[in-house]
Specification:
This protein is mostly beta strands. Helix content is about 10%, strand content about 30%. The longest helix has 6 residues, at about 5-10.
Length: about 140
Amino acid sequence: MVVYAHTLFFDVFGCGCGCMIISTAQVETFLLSGTELGLVFDVAVMPVEGKKLAYFDKRVKRIAYENGEATPWLIRTPTIEYDSAASAMAPEGKIATLNAFDVSGVRPAFCLPITTPITTDSAIVPGETVYVIDYERLAAGDE
């Protein structure tokens, strides 16, 4: 996986050089499952995959936005409704079935090495403190 710093990051710190690669990491990227998103299914229809992630306890956390608008996104849990079907999260954060050929987003997940420098930030999501990669320490090679 390649870690990019957004143009805004560089503009804030006076560089003005736009998007650039600041580090690379070898991680496996995957789509989240319905189980990991905290959804409960009839296992005859959708299998249990992984373990429930506490982050997705509230439906609002399953809503994805593109250009400020709630949008559907694919999950890895299969569906058997029809041949071209794919499981997805609907814009309101509920399970949905979409045509596999429909335009949808993804919210890929990944596991980071334990040595990845992580910090918290309360300025990214209003009213919440979130975990973020400490890019400065990552670029410097600090662990």
